Amino acid sequence: MSSRFFALQPFTPLAIALRRWVIVGTCCLLLFAGFSAVDTSAAIAANSPTLLAQVNRTSSPQKSNAAADTQEEATVALMPPDIQRILDRGRLIVAVLGNDNAPFFVETENGQADGLDIQLAQALADQLGVDLELNRSPDTFNGVVETVYYRGADMAISKISRTMKRAVRVRFSHPYLQMRQGLLINRLLLAQQTNSDNVIETIRGLTGDVGVIEGSSYVGFLKQKFPQATIVELASWEDIVTAVSAGDLLAGYRDELEIKKVVKTKPDAALQLQTAVLTDTQDALAMVLPWESTHLLAFTNQYLDNLATEYTVDGILEEFADYLSAS
Q1: How far, in Å, CA of 40 to CA of 199, rounded?
Q2: d(CA 56, CA 54)
Q3: How far is CA 276 from the centre of its chain?
């Protein structure tokens, strides 16, 4: 076996076959190593996802930290903007009428706000994990709606009736209280109108001066329900009750809760006043939100849907009876 023999052999069929086997064997080894690495990772992932995450972090800590930062940034970016504003501020701002209206919102003896609407507002703030701030600058119910429209509050919970006119500018939540509309009528003036006619028919065709709260939904309700009546807008319900009792107004028009509240708190007024609840009407109270706050609206509706209590007029009057006597 001389060196010349080895120099000539690569060109023989045997040498060529050996070379092919060497090349194939080398490729197989490389492929096997690659599949083993993939199988090992798959096995780790199947048996212990945490272990796989640890292996990946160990093998490339810089890449892992960058991915974690990116994921955290993405999580923050995915937060709905109407919710994020509240979380960044740390407060839920709720608009409420400036004047107390028991049992919905009152200022207690210790200077704290309470009532049904205040409790609902506090519950929503608690669900968001932020503090509650009340904006009580509005002096009319329409002013409360305008405060939300112009972004002076995240929402309003202030005994606001859902109306089509308001729905053009803001969004309403699901109703949290369904009421009927009612009349507080001066007995003497009603008798003068009734004569021999049926009282119910007289009320249906009501004419004369009827008082409603200025800037409230009942201005529009009165136009719809009693088109022949003369609308008299006064600053407060107390002013209307006084005017009806004195005979300066034929009637006052408001929701059944306020009508029943007069009967409860002014028992002597029954001698001068007659009440009527209109069974073919409704007054749905809802929360008010800016038109673009779609996620906050969904959040609010979800809370209302999950409430274990279904509020009723009589139930609210009983629960907050102490505030009625003080108002």
Answers
A1: 90
A2: 5
A3: 33
Q: Are strands 273-290 and 177-186 parallel, antiparallel or unpaired?
A: antiparallel
Q: What's the alpha-carbon Rg for the chain, to the nearest Å?
A: 37
What are 139-180's pLDDT values in tens digits? Answer: 999 999 999 999 999 999 999 999 999 999 999 999 999 999
Domain that holds residue 94: 81-177+285-326
Pair (61, 104) in one structural domain? no
- Tell me the whole-structure pTM to 2 decimals: 0.74
Q: Which residues of 73-88 are buried (b: 16+ CB within 10 A; e: fewer)?
A: eeeeeeeeebbeebee
Contacts of 157 (CB under 8 A, 6+ apart): 94, 96, 117, 118, 120, 121, 287, 288
- The total domain count for the chain is 3
Amino acid at 59: S
Q: Are strands 229-234 and 208-213 parallel, antiparallel or unpaired?
A: parallel
What are the distances in angstroms from CA 262 to CA 15, 74, 85, 236? 114, 56, 42, 14
User: Is the same domain home to 127 and 37?
Assistant: no
CB 265 within 8 A of CB 325: yes
**CA-to-CA distance for 291 and 251, rounded, in angstroms?**
36
